[in-house]
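#lab-general

N.A. 3:47 PM
ok so I finally got the sequence cleaned up, no stray characters, all 512 residues accounted for. can someone with queue access submit it? mine expired

B.Y. 3:52 PM
send it over

N.A. 3:53 PM
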Amino acid sequence: MASIDSAADGHLRASGEVVDKGLKKNAIGYLSNLVIGVASTAPAYSLAATLGFIVAVSGVGVHAPAVLLVSFVPMLMIAAAYKYLNRADPDAGTTFAWTTRALGPGTGWVNGWAIFLSDVLVMASLAQIAGIYTFKLFGFTELSESLPAIIVAAVVWIGLMTWICYRGIELSARIQQFLLGAEIAILTVFAVVTFVKVYANHPAGSIEPAFAWFNPFALSFKALIDGVLLGIFIYWGWDSGVAVNEESEDANEGPGRAAVMSTILLVLIYVIVSAAGQAYGGTHLLTNPENQSDVLSVLGSHVFGFPWDKFLIIAVLTSASASTQTTILPTARTTLSMAHWKSIPKAFGKIHPRFLTPGFSTLMMGGVSILWTLVILNLSESALEDSIVAIGFPICFYYGFTGIACIVYYRHELTKSVRDFLLLGIAPLLGALMLFGVAGYAAVYYGHAENVSSKPILGITLPLWMGIGGMLVGVILMIVSRPFFRDFFSRRLETAKPGLLEESVEHAPARF
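B.Y. 4:20 PM
back already:
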């Protein structure tokens, strides 16, 4: 590896240590990394909003658990790439920093934009759900159906979570532990009670689980891919636990391990809860158009009855609010890192002197999220639905490029052992190819007006405008930025130092 000093690079000290960006060191441990990673995916909300639509895909039906298993595979493979790239460089910019080093500054910049874009696109949906379920929890049915009330509640939720993120990573982590703990506890009770009732009481419309539900080979290829288009989305977010690496204990190892474990916990939650819901209500209940967008609340009223069904409302509420917070966290740290690398204005790199958080970046993310929420919620419900579809394009982009970056960065290590070849080469490559393939298929599928909710604009559907169009905006901004950030865009490519993975973390003299 070429020697790079801190003056030339703006990122590494002469010793190879990551330059202190001012974030609070050793503020959180492995458990918090894991909690942030799982909470960011919003398991209860994701299941409530997506499970019914997966079951409704032609040819899927009772095989929804199999779809969720297949959707997990590329995520696990990319999580391995995160683990090994974080082992080398625990930078809060994660994919931005790693793709910059391995694939070049232009690619790195666009990947940083992809993280920002995906996080902004999802905020309106998360905040809307948090607002609606707040009203549902307290029985304010009219307010939960009133657009002005929902908008006010959504803005309040974003403001609250922005304030928590602004106040410090420790406060954020403690709140996440509480919210996720409640969410998982409720989902666990729901699954247990559901299976007991199915086997003991055989409610009308219920079906006992069968092995074929979990067998992806029981589906046609088209049905499987159509289902995976939806399944990929509900796994997204586990990388948030890696974005707080510079504030974590055991920064090189802990966040990376948490990324892998997060995906494993998620597949367990999704497969068990989806199988439970399907067993109790059958496919008819889940695919009923009146139930599809909120299957957990419907199932809760059947399984628990009043007033205990409120617990599933609490699960979805805590899920959406927790994910709102953990979406702000990684985005603020990505822009902090980009500013530290001198690729965007330095204001984004400001650290609050008391709270040791990326103050400016956090407030900017909160402000942009509120603006986007106001715009998209006032457009139409169909526009909001299409914005969720659009998120898949930047997700597949930056996850896929993280896998490619791992292969390129560690290319000289691939032949040293079978394990390195599989974990540093084959797994990230397969994960990236699967995600790029899904993105390509989605571009064709959602390019047809009959597969989206809103009307096309100039012959192009809204998901393509927001997803692919949003990525093209990032490419344009990157090109425009080049004359203003010449040092960053003149960086050279880097590769792994020989034997890096064999060194103990405490004595590794260089991260990249």
